[in-house]
Amino acid sequence: MIRCIIVVNNQGKPRLMRFYDGTPHERQQHVLKTVYNIVSRRSDDLCCCFAEDRELFGDDHKIIYRHFATLYFVFVVDSAESELGILDLIQVFVQVLDSCFENVCELDLIYHFDKVNYILDEIVMGGMVVETNAEVVMSALQGIKKLESSQSSFFG
Amino acid sequence: MPSGMKGLTVFVADIRNCPNKEAEQKRVDKELAKIRQKFTNSKSLSGYDRKKYIWKLLYAFMLGYDIDFGHMEAVNLVSSNKYSEKNAGYLACSLLLSENSEILRLITNMVKNDILHGNEHQTALALNTCANLGGEEFSENLFSDIAKLITPGASRPSYIRRKAYVCLLRLYRRDYDTIQPDTWAARLGQALQSEKDTGVLTSMCSLILGVLETDPNGWDDLVQPAILTLARVMGGDCPPFYVYYSVPAPWLQIKLLRILQFFPAPTNTTLLNRMNDILYRILSKPTVSAHAPHHHGKKRTKADAERLNRSNTEHAVLFEALNLIIHLEMDCDLTTKKMASSLLGNFVASKEANIRYLGLETMARLASDPDVLPQLKRHTELIIGQLQEPDISIRRQALNLLYGICDRDNWQQIVDELLEILKGSDVLMQEELVLKIAILAERNAPDYTWYVDVVFKMIEYAPEVVSDEIWYRVVQVVTGFDDNTDNAELQQYAAKKAIEYLNDRFADETMVRLGAYLIGEFGHHLQSQLSTSRQFQTLHRHFPRVGSSTRCILLLAYAKLLNADEDVSEEVLAVLEEQQDSVDPDLQQRAVELYRLCNESTATMENVLAMMPVFSEKIQSNNPLIRRMKQASKSRAAPRQQLEEAAKTEGVLFKTGVGPAAKAEEDDDHEEEEEEEQDERNGRRDEHDEDEEEDEEEEEEDEEEEEEEEEDRRNGPRSRGAAGGGGRGRGEADSGPAGGGLQLPPTAPGDIQGMWKNLCITPQGPMFQSNSLVIQLRHEYRLNQGRIAINYANKSPNVVVQFPSVTISEAPFMRHQASKPPDVLRPGETYTHQVMVDCLQPYLNPPKYIVNCVLQTPQGPPSNQNLPFTLPVCLTKFFSPASLSAEQFTSYWESMSGPGREMQLMGPLASGFVADVQRAAGAPQQLSPQAIMQRFNAYLSQGFNLAIIPLSNAPGVLFGAATFHTGTPQPNDPSKKVVVACMMKLELDPSRMMARLTARTAHPQVTTSFAQILAAYFITPQQQQQQQPEQTPQQPQTASLI
């Protein structure tokens, strides 16, 4: 299963964090920092997208990440997940963000913190991958948008 | 695009504009104060405002700020009819509440309602929340409703059914009884074949995999549908939008291939052929490969990215097929297998780092198959080349693989390369290297002199990372095993090597330890070449600059040299005499003992100091280093053999939520440990019985011997030499150096309190970690005395650390004596500060250990740090287990009730402990009562030194007993020390996740300290309720004992 998902920028600022393994809140920032330290030191060109930190996560885990412009998308998963499958999933997540925000950039994630969380919930639930198809996710989001606009009041 | 909530946008923008952390903190605090204020009058708030504030809280929560309010507002939002408000409410519940929160009860009904009666999107939200939170409450109340969503003919949209399957898995993980094969195997098998929606199939497979991870028995009906569905999907029966880079539904294919890895190969040949056919087709499909990695500064083009994604997808299915091939072993077609190994050869040489990494990993697992090992060995050069990669992830995989393919033909090439790499590696990699080199050399060397050479080289190249375990093993191998081989030549060789290396004035301390051991034990083989006196001198020149424990080994070596050759008696006795005045109590004690021994009759001396007897054969085959290598890997393709072995053991074991492979291994370990424990327990009980029969004086002697033995066990081979020669061989119970005690998860580097807490119940661990200074602590105890080694290491490249003062606070309840504290540590230097303690009276808070240090960087002013540590010497360190019989325990227990003698604490299980149970059980959701009780048992016996009394068969109760030792003489008989009997009872209420702890001792201060220390680990602090407080008046910490 997926133990946590972290989107962090090149400076180490979190843009999205979800933990599915019950990591207590007081430890989450530590995980963020450690993971950021690991991925930010790895060269995009020379290194693979997989890393480990046994001290932090124990034996059964992999840190799988992709670096897009100013953001790292990091998934920490156990051995029940396929490594390349997770890389594909990150790609799907980014594709959906890109279609929603038209040329997504870090600012979109910052100012649409709420939407990004919606989108993620359509792809991953409770640490399990629930949808892998960008089009299906998009159509669910369209449905929600329609519903919301029909309910929107004076306050928006 | 605006977020739709202006207030949120402003808040986020403000935070973004904060120049530093302080400003951010200020801004967030201000906002939280405002929201708190708004929420106190929440009736007048509009739904929109409530939603906006909740989002602000969630943003602050992500940034790491503690959000301890707003839970009720989140619950309110859940009941809103507006989608965006409901969504904010549900998400806030998912993030802010834990699965055991009381508040969950409040939303259970709303979740139920949304699932049953909401529109599609409301149901989806409710399912998301249910999956994100899990929890017993949901599991009990919602499972059947969610299961209804996927009943055939329920006609729910596929969007909902997909989520329902994932949700069921989450609830199943909370309660394994919900999905049992007798009803579900047929149902899921049918669904696999009839379901047309690819997304639903994928979720269904996730559920199936989750269930198989826990227990694959009874689900065989799924094999055929899985194979048929896989064939169908590969054949293109998949809607076009699920075709990802020309691969039809890759995620579904991966999951189906994984499901098949949980079962033995089908006995039905048609099915087996079908499976082989599928594998062949996957392997023979051409894959795209990405371009060579780009040079810096050159931008990746969009086409490159496309290519990479495509390659990922194609390889993802391919690697899963390879996993299935590894799992099938002999049942896989040989041609396919050969194809697999040649494909893996290509992967290892691939230009794409990802493919290379996975290629190495997969090849390491294929290496266990003798059919293809010769083929894999052809890639040795290529793999060795990967050890030079800049990426540590790849180097690690390469090392693992080399370990896997190393045998008698290529060991020398591999070990030589690894030794070369060892010189230039970073510490993390060195630790793995050293362990693997040691094992490979011992296993494959044509004779052990090679092995001895290799270990000496390792100590030369990387002395810091060669742990005691590794050189203990050398001692075992050189001493020999009970297999009738004459080891004299090897022993002579090893002693000679030791002399050579110790001729270096600056030989590392590890080298001195091993050298002293080898020369002391086997130096007599060298007498014709090198006089004993010269041997003594070679050793003794290192004496002044090594630590106390190494000096003890040296003294023993001297005594052994003297025993072998009278000529050195003058020199040796002089040293022993001098060390009798040592300030170090250990050294002093050893010197006194050995001095007396050397002046005893020749017969006694010969007996005690003679060569060690050979080790049993069991120790030969049970290399402790290999046990350290074992690592559990959950739900990975387990080779079939392991599966079958696992299947033979009791089915119950599988109910605990760990994958079969991991479980089988763990099980092995348990058995061994249990065996050892049993031996120990039996041993102790025997002695106890004897004690009862004999009169008091003898009893004391016996006790002394027992202590000595105890010490033996802790100290490894060095004192085994001293006591073992006297005809008291302890045979198989002594399987080498003792392991590390209770295993706890590592703490965060900044968490000093957490590290301290861990140290209080483990023999060693970190005490402080920063970028420049790292402090580790190791401690051991015997009765009322303890020895603490505090190791300082300067890890920085350029910071000099000075220590103006290191002080230990004075306390009437404890005497202490310390070696010289550190003075200054330059980059890379280490220093060990020794502290001895002697407990005189009961207490709660141990003495403080205050380190004042100044960090001097090349640039900038020095910074002064005051680190007020507490020594992790809690009261239970001076406990020794008291293995009472059930009857004895009961009668003592009953006599010990009454004021001041009993303290009872109860409350919800501490969250840290719960997390540790889950960690120890290996599954995040695993929290069965059995797992908790097991962990209780481990803490009590290994962490708090209690003997567990086999008193009750009731599942949720544990009894323990120990003796608390002090150094205070008994007033009526000063030759004896005051001891206090301690007993405890720990009960678990699994339905409410509460624990109750009852401590009973004869002394009020011991009672309260004992109870409070234990409770600090098991029970949530604010909620600890003290029962019958009138019975336990708080005593000052220094209360007199009698």
Automatic annotation (TrEMBL), chain A:
The lineage of its organism: Eukaryota, Sar, Alveolata, Colpodellida, Vitrellaceae. Its main location: membrane. It comes from Vitrella brassicaformis (strain CCMP3155). It is found in: Cytoplasmic vesicle membrane; Golgi apparatus. This is AP complex subunit sigma. Coiled coil: none annotated. Residues 1-146 form the AP complex mu/sigma subunit domain. It is a peripheral membrane protein. Gene3D superfamilies: 3.30.450.60. GO terms for biological process: Golgi to vacuole transport; intracellular protein transport. CDD domains: AP3_sigma. One of its GO terms (cellular component) is AP-3 adaptor complex. Keywords: Cytoplasmic vesicle, Golgi apparatus, Membrane, Protein transport, Transport. Belongs to the adaptor complexes small subunit family. InterPro entries: AP_complex_ssu, AP_mu_sigma_su, APS3, Clathrin_sm-chain_CS, Longin-like_dom_sf.
Automatic annotation (TrEMBL), chain B:
GO terms for molecular function: clathrin adaptor activity. The keyword Protein transport applies. It is a peripheral membrane protein. Pfam families: Adaptin_N, Alpha_adaptin_C. Residues 24-600 form the Clathrin/coatomer adaptor adaptin-like N-terminal domain. It is found in: Endomembrane system; Membrane, Coated pit. GO terms for cellular component: AP-2 adaptor complex. A 1,2-diacyl-sn-glycero-3-phospho-(1D-myo-inositol-3,4,5-trisphosphate) binds at K38, Y48, K52, Y53, I54, W55, K56. InterPro entries: Adaptor_Complx_Large_Subunit (IPR050840), AP2_complex_asu (IPR017104), ARM-like (IPR011989), ARM-type_fold (IPR016024), Clathrin/coatomer_adapt-like_N (IPR002553), Clathrin_a-adaptin_app_sub_C (IPR003164), Clathrin_app_Ig-like_sf (IPR013041), Coatomer/calthrin_app_sub_C (IPR009028). This is AP-2 complex subunit alpha. Coiled coil: none annotated. Residues 628-750 are annotated as: Disordered. Keywords: Coated pit, Endocytosis, Membrane, Protein transport, Transport. Residues 878-1013 form the Clathrin adaptor alpha-adaptin appendage C-terminal subdomain domain. Residues 665-679, 688-711 have a biased composition (Acidic residues). It comes from the Eukaryota. Adaptins are components of the adaptor complexes which link clathrin to receptors in coated vesicles. Clathrin-associated protein complexes are believed to interact with the cytoplasmic tails of membrane proteins, leading to their selection and concentration. Belongs to the adaptor complexes large subunit family. One of its GO terms (biological process) is intracellular protein transport.
